[in-house]
Amino acid sequence: MEAGQDADTWEWLRHAACTGSDPELFFPVGDSGPAVEQAERAKKVCHGCPVESQCLEWALATGHTSGVWGGTDEEERRRLRRRADRRRAPDGPPARPRRSAAPGRRRP
Asked: Facing residues of 72 across strands?
């Protein structure tokens, strides 16, 4: 348990479907061939888990970048983080004004 964390923070883990599984299953090495199949097997365990959403929330909140957590792999969590970052970000820089084409010329 991390410093400053209380037991309630980890309560969901007691109900996780993965607690009886080999932890290696959830940490495939690579991103092709057997590793993809291994990740899919791990995700099947997650998809039958009563605390899948809590696990995913925890992985996103703590920045876990490796392994299968909450039914997602590293790339899926990266996409979720980017999407969340875009929703939180301000509107971004103002649009640049469009330049009009010179008379007789078409805009590219």
From this structure: 69
Dist CA 50 CA 103 (whole Å): 66
Q: Are 56 and 68 in contact (CB under 8 A)?
A: no
Distance of CA 86 to the CA centre of its chain: 14
Range 68-107 burial, b when 16+ CB lie within 10 A, else e = bbbbbbbebbeeeeeeeeeeeeeeeeeeeeeeeeeeeeee
Residue-wise pLDDT for 32-68, tens only, equals 999 999 999 999 999 999 999 999 999 999 998 899 9
Listed residue (17, 27, 30, 22) closest to 66, CA to CA: 27
Cβ atoms 75, 33 nearer than 8 A: no
